[in-house]
Specification:
heterodimer, A: Nuclear Transport Factor 2, Chain: A, 37 helices, 28 strands, globular, B: Immunoglobulin-like, Immunoglobulin-like, eight-stranded mixed sheet
Chain lengths: ~1050, ~425
Amino acid sequence: MKEDLVGIRFSVGSVLFLAGMVLFFEKGLTTGPDSFSPLAGLQYLTPYNRLLAMPKRALQFYYLALLSGLVLHGVTLVFTFEGTYDAFVHLFFADHYAENWFETWDYKWYAGFTITSYPPLVHQVIALLSKVVGLKGGFLIWSFFIILVFIRGVFHFSRIWVDDRAAAYAAVLAVFSTSFGEALHIFGQLPSITGIALLLNACPELYYWLRYNQPHRLLTGLSLLAVTSTAHHVTTIFGMVFFVLPTLGLAVMNRCAARIGSEDDIHFKDIFTEVIRVLPRVIVFGILVILITVVVIFPYWYWSKSDPIAQVPIPHGSRDSYLEVLSSGLVFFLIPWGMMLFFLPFLFRELFRKRNIFLGLSITLAFLLGTGGTTPLPQMMLGETAFNILTLDRFTYWATLLALPFWGAFFFELIEGSYRDYLERRTGVFFHRFLVGTLVAGVVISALVVINFQNIRATQPAKIAIDPIVNFMARDKHHDWRYLTLGFGDQMAWLSANIDALSIDGNYHSVRRLPEMTSRAVERLENAKYLGMEGINSLQEFLTIPEKYRLKFIFSNDKFYDPLLFFAGWNKVQQLENNIVVWEKPDIPTLPSVLPRKNIPIYQRLMWGLIPVSCLILALVLNGWFSMRSFGQESSSRMATVLATKGQYWGVYTLWLLGLAVGIAGFSAYKGYQNLDQVSPQNVIDAYFNRLDFKDFPKAYTYFNPDTRPSLDQYLMELSLEGGILSSYAKLDALRTTYQKGDHPGELKAEIEASWLTALHYYQTKHTITLTQRGLFWYIEPFQLEKRTPPDQFVRIPAIDFFSQGKRKALADKVEKRDILDRPDFYILSAALVERSGQYAVIGEAINTDNDPGYLTLEAVMYNRQGQELARYNARDAISHMLYPKESTTFRVDFTALRPPVPVTDSVPHSFVVFARSMVAAEGYYKNTGLQQVRVDSNTQHMQGEVINYGARQIIVPQLLLSYYRPDRKLLWVEPLYLSGGIRPQRQKAFDHPLPDLGDIRVIQWGNDDNLRINGVPRQEYRQTLQIPLDVQRYPAAPFILKDDLWVNIKVIAQMAALSDES
Amino acid sequence: MSLKQIHAKRRCSILLIYIALLVNLACSADSPAPDSATPQGRILLTDSLFQAGILTSIYARADTARADKSWLLIWSDALGDTPVTGSWRNDTLVFSIPRNLCSHSGRVQLSLTSGGQVADQRFLQLTPAAPEGVVETYVGPKTITVSSGQRAMVVAIPKDAFGNPVATGTVVTFSLRYPGQSIVTRESLMDNLVSSILIPAEERKGQILVGATAGKASSVEEGIALTPAWPGQVSLEVESWVPFADPRQYVAVRTNPIVDALGNLVADGTLVQIVVREQEQVVGSYPGFTSNGVAQVHLQNPNHPADWEITAFANGKAEGPALRLGFVPYVVALAVTYLDEEKTLRIGPVKAPLGQLVTDDFPMEVTLQQQDQHYHFSVLTQDGFCSLSLPADFPAGIYRCSVMAGGQRISREIYIR
């Protein structure tokens, strides 16, 4: 978009300004020996005392870190931020503030939510910047600024733990930190990064306050903590434990050391005495922090108290066992720790020195919690509830940042310190240089890999141009209805930010309040397919009763959902220029002009709008002012209290380094071999099905036995003939394989049961495959695909077409009265409320008595004995929504959950009402199908038969609507059956379906003239006016007789292949 | 201060107060006293019935002592109250009525007021002018079924030049043209601002055209679709077929032009169900949809010799006369050989009635039976032959081998080692 280009150009241009701004705060940073006395500190400063002679280099390193951070992350972020998980969510929030700063309610997601549910600072800053550079530009500018603030924070935070040179190394290494890179370039968690960057800057202030009794440091520290809270309150809360307490603990230790004269002489009673001494101040500090955190984002706390999150926990990979779910281990443990894994012994040796003990406890705790469900410890420590709510990757993130000072010290020792001396003495210069080179290369490469992770493994769908969708929603008053996106990933948030229309879905699950959403562990409807059947079920519920949510349009970027949309009665309207397919549901009322909202008091709205940015300005002013006055003083006194580190186990560290490297290489090689596609029968089967799943047919072909396989062209051609839901719309979920000896030596017969997830339900398919071993590898023997030759080369089939003109005059305003068509006449032949295995449903039969084709929406409401509504649902796919004149359909409305609109006295269903609504429908509807040879196999008790497609188009997903009757023609049950394969023109497909056990069906109430209503009119009105032939012996007129007491009538509903897909 | 001086000062004060009271009284004597009396005024109207748009000014006789601007005429009609200011012409107050007020028909209350008090009240009745322009029409439902109880209503609202519905009792003439009939007219009187007629469904399908006129006003054309009633009996005829039990072939059947009980061709897209029976059992079911009253369906040939009885019907109606078709075997010659060395069954040549080899991919069903064990295989022909390779671990023994294709079945015993 134009705005983006302007924004990005402006962003890059503002980089220098930002760098200058950060350096402004370093005005007091002095160089050279003047800043402290080397002699005064010598006795305490080993092993980093060499730095004392070269403080200029520390500064050079620090400036290098700032520059390289800006260049590396700044440049790459322009290309990566749109592919991150959260960037667009934050832009959506920013857009809210840009449009209405003091508005605290947003209608765009989840039928409305309170915007005070997330700390606002970052969003508000982006909103302010967006007035000049656009939303994306604002996001980038703030990111650049925060990158610099983060590096500054790491440097100054490190300086309280290690000396300046090591701190400078830490600053450089922070640039290449994989956990920071992951948070920025993969997760896009700008508020969290802002929070941690500010917290790292706050810690040194608090340290100097307590250590050297500098009250103004308390002021600057608190101001930074206040800004941290307005950016990311969780960082403040947990940061107090993981960052601030160890910092204050260090101050106490150093006070002790200064009083006693040596670290080694410190005993517990000394620490205790010192703690008692500073306790009043620390208590006051604690109270101040709590007060500040409460006040600056008071509306947030008010919201969380008045509207607590009560929803089923959303699964998160950080709670997995990383040994069982390797991908989670990779993303939430290996990537954040990255090369730091190689220095863990050094880290823990340093941490468990007396001086660093508080930080040691902090990092150890964060390290443990960050291991998620790998061990039971985190769950035991956090408790069940907190474990299921928190995302535990943040602990690893914090642990890696806390470890950065020592990571810097490690590199300092390796490159120019005593570790270098040790290595050169024991292994020679070459090995030392090799080791340094390898580690540096590893650090740089792992950072680059993380930054480019999106190119290695796609985390989001390909970029979607949203302009066509924006235009579509803007015309013909389409924004009078809600919409839903499917397969957009996090780009749905960007779309929401750019259009005024409302979505029933959203991208911030904490604020969902619809029971349909909070009762399921489904984060978003948009990516339902990745959440298994629970996700699909949740989506199905919304698609089944869209009028409840005024949901009319669906933008689909994933054809996986096509069958569900088609069979749930959605019409494919058009394919936009960006290849997004628009689906529409007919007969949905528009949104009311006034929507419900939740108001919060005016004072809170003012607080929310004014305090966060004010805090930021105040913090900048305070820190700027004091940094000019006090830095030099602090430096000279600080160095005198750095305690000695001694007793390093360089040999052990080297062994760990080498051992870990060898271990990783060996494990990788072993897993690599294990995962070779054809190294075992199971591997080749897995590989083959995976290739089919991902439509990589040429690669799948390579798994066939080279001696017996057909040509690739022949294979591809035969494969293209196999349409259907499994080959086009399914996702392979699981394979279960059993093996038998083959006919020949070196052969195996594999019986495979494959589970496929589709948008409709799970499919189970069975395959028998012969495998042959040739040398080390296994191959699949090719199998015959469908091959039938119809007699005629050319077929003529007459067809009927309809067209509903809608507006005959091109007017932007509403439809003229003359253009409004009558609702077609329908009639409900029968209906009954039934219970089967504890589930309730309404079954029945309806007929289009009109002469126009009609679209039927069938809604059933279930009541208890007191007449209170228990549930209200529509028929989803157990119905034919499109009916031609005089065509009938059976239907089944499933009450999948009881959702009374108000509390009820009892939940036992007693009665029901059916509302049928019809509209004239003009969509073409394929009817050239037939059924034959329907019978029951006496051995298997399965119903078998053939579906014939005698027409000229390919059926991609055939659905059979099975209606079971008793011989007295009372409808017993209705169920949809989807055939797994498509049916090409002029061919047939056999089906085999186990007969359902219908003995447990209990009729609760039969339908009658009072409870069956069509277009708002009681049924008898239609009966009296229209001469509908209602001879019960004619419905059904000619069923297939399965058994003496069981008849079946079958209706074929065909989802057609797109013309471009047809072979 | 002496007593004398004190007295002199008091006197002076009393005098000053007295003078002040006098001045005050003198000043207040010029301003009018509060008027508690009802203002005197009268609206000058000789009639209370006017045609909308005609009444442009209203005269009133009023107390000239009152200021001009204190007199207001309040015009109250269905749209609300509107104050109108007047002006003096000689001794008469003249109120010019804005056009937007006097053009609305209906009852008007006039109130002559001054100082918030009503001097006089009169009621007017503004009647609509003669019909003019376009008659507003509403029709519903827009489709009715022939010869049913359904009726459509046409509502017409003729209006005058100002948009007022014309007066009650005004004659509105509706002109109707049923399909295939001459134009008929019906009159309806305006009542409650509308006139309407009910249009019953007649027997012939098509479009009922409706127009309405009242005076110089006319409506635009409206239409009501008369749609056919339920389809009547459906009979079938064969369009093309091959009388062999070759399941690759299709029988093309079509219905007669389907009409309703009144002879109207049914609507396009009307469903017709076609059912195939064999020995009185339903073996096939095909939906057909009419185009110009005719539905066409392709039925797949059976894979065995059979006598078919094909019927068609519309939902809810009885089946029409049956169409009977007989299918003879497609395969007339079939040979089966067992190749012991290769453990393979070779079937062929498979020949059709004209002596030709059956076409490629013709389905063959092979059954191997040994006591209670049944093994079933499906194979396809290629150039009139097909092969079935048995698995290496296929149990040895003597089997009854049956091959069935195109209505032909042969059996023989084979020994499998």
